[in-house]
């Protein structure tokens, strides 16, 4: 699917045929294949949305923030929240939509957030999107997914972009050129601002120091290149690592697997 904008099907119509399920008109899953350059323009839903990139990556813009999300993230978007989704590489987006009456308890579910994507949660979302489960099975899956969400820790490494325009300029440049080795002090000089101001902006808006944020940005860029089939040695240099072994170690800490296995797993599944 390669489109400029995206609109959901009428969820009430989709679920109406499943009259035996009390959540039939309020619980629905979809699977969308996206191409590089696909944009789901600013929109909102009547239902809460749980979004997961089974492959590829997504930039989610919501409430003044931009998050880069991959398959280790779940994105929770409450009903009525305006958001935009952009995709710079091919992938698959799995979404589950549910009426707010089915929302987990707690104030934290009233605002957008990112959660750790446990393997079971991803499998359940795929099952809902692909298997057309019966009404009783759908209810069981929904309940198990809700339990997993309630226990899932917040994920704070989605490469959030700073709100401060000067820090955001730095972050955007580094996302485009992850091999840029300039220090925070050098960036500050080029922007005519103090390094302390930039440092505070990164911590306040992303929850990470500049150094931590740059590592995450580099590794996300590396994952994108590996998914495209690039060799590990080339990727290590392209994202700013002089030592391939250091790159492999950092990547394994971040993604739980080596770059070579990640590259094979992604390309083999396409």
From TrEMBL:
The keyword DNA-binding applies. Coiled coil: none annotated. SMART domains: HTH_ARAC. Residues 168-265 form the HTH araC/xylS-type domain. Pfam families: Cupin_2 (PF07883), HTH_18 (PF12833). Keywords: DNA-binding, Transcription, Transcription regulation. Transmembrane segments: none annotated. This is HTH araC/xylS-type domain-containing protein. It comes from Agreia bicolorata.
């Amino acid at each position: 699917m390669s489109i400029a904008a995206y609109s959901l099907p009428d969820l009430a119509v989709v679920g109406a045929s499943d009259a035996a399920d009390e959540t039939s008109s309020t619980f629905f899953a979809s699977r969308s294949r996206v191409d590089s350059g696909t944009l789901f323009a600013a929109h909102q839903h009547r239902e809460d949305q749980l979004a997961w990139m089974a492959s590829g990556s997504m930039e989610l813009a919501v409430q003044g923030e931009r998050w880069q999300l991959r398959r280790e993230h779940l994105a929770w978007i409450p009903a009525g929240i305006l958001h935009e989704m952009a995709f710079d590489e091919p992938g698959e987006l799995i979404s589950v939509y549910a009426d707010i009456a089915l929302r987990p308890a707690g104030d934290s579910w009233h605002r957008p957030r990112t959660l750790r994507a446990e393997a079971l949660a991803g499998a359940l979302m795929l099952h809902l999107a692909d298997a057309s489960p019966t009404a009783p099975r759908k209810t069981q899956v929904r309940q198990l997914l809700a339990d997993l969400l309630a226990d899932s820790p917040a994920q704070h490494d989605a490469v959030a972009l700073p709100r401060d325009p000067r820090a955001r300029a730095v972050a955007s440049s580094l996302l485009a050129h992850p091999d840029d080795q300039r220090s925070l002090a050098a960036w500050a000089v080029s922007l005519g601002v103090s390094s302390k101001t930039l440092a505070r902006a990164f911590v306040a808006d992303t929850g990470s120091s500049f150094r931590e944020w740059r590592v995450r940005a580099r590794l996300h860029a590396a994952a994108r290149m590996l998914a495209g089939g690039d060799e590990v040695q080339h990727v290590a240099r392209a994202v700013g690592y002089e030592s391939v072994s250091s790159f492999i170690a950092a990547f394994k800490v971040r993604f739980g697997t080596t770059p070579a296995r990640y590259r094979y797993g992604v390309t083999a599944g396409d």
